[in-house]
Design a protein that fits this description.
- Helix content is about 45%, strand content about 15%.
- It has about 190 residues and is an alpha+beta fold.
- The protein has one domain.
- Strand 2 and strand 3 form a beta hairpin.
- Helix 4 packs across helix 9.
- The radius of gyration is 17 Å and the shape is globular.
């Protein structure tokens, strides 16, 4: 698959972005204006997104700028280290509903959920979220604890400081190369941060 090779080369691909390497732009051959759903090649884009997300070397998480980010297997230990750290930036803005949902996910390993609390947990990298097709024929969001995800994929966590530094270096490189402003969630200023 051509897109998987591009992902391996870049390390990450966003679903869509005005400047950073992204699947939608690669499919249509240039930046996309507006929603990709309205584009003439939307069915092709959807097919490529679905195929890439299902690839065994691909993790999808809200790593860059709160957007769906396709992450190559080589970066999984770094992402896992950051995701399981439970640092202040991850926890500070969670409301009661999000904290309860996090505890439920930690206890069950995997639950079906959606809404504001689920999105907050995904953006803080506290859970792995995935859209699934249910037996009822509808789509649902499944939240998985990182412990369960690591067990399922056989991924071992990297060291936290080294992991953060390697991800920061990658994003800094991509931002400089593409004149972009992709942000990692821990680099966004939070109340009380230095």
């Amino acid at each position: 698959m051509k897109m998987a090779a591009e992902l391996e080369q870049q390390g990450i691909l966003l679903k869509t972005d005005p400047k950073l390497p992204n699947v939608c732009a690669l499919v249509i051959g240039g930046p996309i204006r507006g929603s990709w759903w309205a584009h003439a090649k939307s069915h092709e884009i959807f097919g490529v997104l679905t195929e890439l997300a299902a690839h065994p070397d691909v993790l999808v998480a809200k790593l860059v700028s709160g957007k769906d980010t396709f992450i190559h297997r080589s970066l999984w230990p770094a992402v896992l280290a950051v995701a399981t750290a439970r640092e202040r930036w991850q926890m500070h803005s969670l409301d009661r509903e999000a904290r309860v949902l996090l505890a439920q996910t930690d206890n069950a390993g995997m639950i079906e959920s959606s809404g504001k609390a689920a999105l907050a947990l995904e953006r803080a990298l506290l859970v792995h979220g995935e859209q699934v097709h249910t037996d009822r024929g509808s789509h649902a969001k499944v939240l998985t604890s990182w412990k369960q995800w690591a067990d399922q994929t056989g991924t071992k966590s990297g060291e936290l400081a080294e992991s953060k530094a390697s991800l920061e270096k990658l994003i800094d490189h991509l931002n400089a190369r593409y004149r972009a402003n992709g942000r990692l969630p821990w680099r966004v200023r939070t109340p009380g941060s230095k």
